[in-house]
Amino acid sequence: MTLDEMWDCLNVEHGVSEQTLQVVTDINGYNEDTMRDILYSVAGLREFEGE
């Protein structure tokens, strides 16, 4: 799964706002670890579906 797909999944499927995603990735970096941290924070999951 690409970073863009992770972003879209968080935004569309888990309801994380674009603004929240932007702020968190500005602070922690735009990378897989950050995306997984956000996923864990909002859904309690360690991996995206299909990974």
How would you portray this structure in words?
It contains three helices and no strands. The longest helix has 12 residues, at 32-43. The chain is mainly alpha-helical.
The count of strands amounts to: 0
Task: Point out poorly predicted stretches.
Answer: none
Assess the beta-strand content as a share of residues.
under 5%
| Computed Rg | 10 Å
Give the overall shape, derived from the CA principal axes: globular
Mean pLDDT: 97
Layout of SSEs?
Layout: H1 3-13, H2 18-28, H3 32-43
Summarize this structure as a short list of keywords or feature phrases.
mainly alpha; 0% strand; globular; single chain
Short description:
This protein is mainly alpha-helical. The protein is built from 3 helices and no strands.
